[in-house]
Amino acid sequence: MTQTLHPSPAVPRFSDLGIAPKLLAVLEQNKFTDPTPIQHQAIPPALEGKDLVGIAQTGTGKTLAFGIPMIQRLASTRGQGLILLPTRELALQVEETLQKVGRVIGLKSAVLIGGASMYQQIQQLRRTPHIIVATPGRLVDHLQQKTISLNNIKIVVLDEADRMLDIGFLPQIKQILSLVPTDRQTMLFSATMPSEIAQLAGKYMRMPLRVEVAPSGTTIAKVEQEVFMVSKEVKMQLLDKLLTDNPGTILLFSRTKHGAKKIAVGIRHMGHTAVEIHSNRSLAQRKEALAGFKSGKYRIMVATDIAARGIDVKDISIVINYDLPDAHEDYVHRIGRTGRAGSMGKAISFASPDQRADLKGIERLIRKTLPILALPVLPPRRAPVFVPRDNFNSFAPRQQGGAQRSGGQGFGGRSSGGRPPQRSSGGGGNFRRRFN
Ligand code: AMP
Fold first, then answer.
1. How far apart are CA 240 and CA 266, in angstroms?
2. Dihedral (Cα; 22, 28, 29, 30), 10-degree rounding
3. Rounded to two decimals, what is the model's pTM?
4. DSSP state, residue 363
């Protein structure tokens, strides 16, 4: 293999950013050679302990932009890190990324998310994890039950802050931040920068440095975008045609949960493998769906906005917006699932004739005119399939499989690299010894 030389400081390398040799070696093993722009900009000040606001969409490498400094700094201080983020899937994904880097130095992490066993999470907390990855709702549950103390938190990350606010987590975030010692480092990452986020940063951060990789509202540059004007009645036929013509992995967005289920059933009826992910599905089902989509068991994943946010699956060839999103900004988040970390992607949107104004709104946001394609010759309409409505509550905790393990990627499992759980005081122990 040839080694690329980087004689110019304009082409940064991970080794220029102040990262400890052990972590550099892990990055190299994971084939991460060059930092992404957000990593290049955020890692040096974050390693110095500065507060920062990162404007970066998902897919830009922001997890390691805060993850590497967090792991490195916690390895030399007696404290814990807390990462707050909007969804369960993102929590699991972030923890997985952190463990990829931190496992070799004994990083212990806990994931506190809804839909998973409180008991298991309490067990993880008893083992004094170095990093706690949590959705605000479940963390507040733990605070109310006094099963967690935030007194030892030295670094806080608010990931996908705009989405957390959209979901309505602002009161919980404020409550949590008021309980974390003020002598801490705070990093906030958000794809967009509404005024509520600026206020949050002003109130809870100390002169944060702003790093930005793309102006808010800009679409990922390398995504080819197309639109079909299509009435609701023929959307399924157009989908049929697109799925036949495009053999790669496809992430498809539906506006509603029931719609997602119906579309997935329809796609399976067309003879393709498909799975749906939305909040009416249990955590175990959502994990299975995501794992199946990643492994290729399902070629097509049908998702609602909330469930899909932050999902990182490599090589998604096409994002299809079967329905335009309710919020224009979700268009940016949706199409960010393809063309990740610099590779080329494609997004196809279906807009019904009465949605021209929505389309214009999206175009204003992304500062780009979207090409409207002529409808291809469509296959005949297939016989309709009856899809009953769900009436179950998906949040019932499950006692088996993925759900039981969900918080428990940690001790004795992947988080500790297959080693038995280790006790430590103050979040130190083996983690630090290995690092030094
Ligand atoms: P994120 O925005 O953190 O969800 O990251 C998006 C994707 O980029 C993930 O699949 C990461 O594994 C990948 N990634 C992160 N940093 C780098 C890097 N420096 N070089 C190549 N890929 C990266």
1. 9
2. 110
3. 0.66
4. H
Q: Is the CB of 337 under 6 A from ligand 1?
A: no
Measured from the CB, is residue 39 less than 6 Å from ligand 1? yes
> Which residue has a Cα nearest atom 14 of ligand 1?
61
C-beta neighbour count of 215 within 10 angstroms? 10
pLDDT per residue as tens digits for the range 237-251? 999 999 999 998 999
pLDDT at 239: 97
Query: Quick one: pLDDT at residue 340?
Result: 60
Q: Give, for 178, the enclosing helix (H) or strand (E).
A: helix 170-179
CA dist., res. 241 & res. 191, Å (int): 33
Amino acid code (one letter) for 381 = R
- Give the position, in ligand 1's atom list, of the atom nearest the Cα of 62: 3
E strand or H helix at 187: strand 185-190
Q: Which helix (H) or strand (E) holds 140?
A: helix 136-144
d(CA 59, CA 151): 32
Q: Is 36 in the pocket of ligand 1 (CB under 6 A)?
A: yes
Shortest-distance Cα residue to atom 15 of ligand 1:
61
- Integer angstrom CA distances of residue 285 from 152, 249, 307, 387: 34, 19, 12, 18
DSSP H or E segment with residue 335: helix 328-335
The pick from 63, 190, 290 for probing ligand 1's pocket by mutation, whose C-beta has the most ligand atoms within 8 angstroms, reads 63
| Residues of the chain under the 70 pLDDT cut | 1-11, 214-221, 309-312, 339-343, 390-436
H or E stretch covering 41: helix 37-47
With CA atoms as reference, report the closest residue to 329 among 305, 299, 353.
305
- What is the set of domains in the chain, with CATH numbers? 3-216+406-435 (3.40.50.300), 223-373 (3.40.50.300)
Alpha-carbon distance values, 185 to 37, 126, 208, 310 (Å): 21, 24, 10, 23
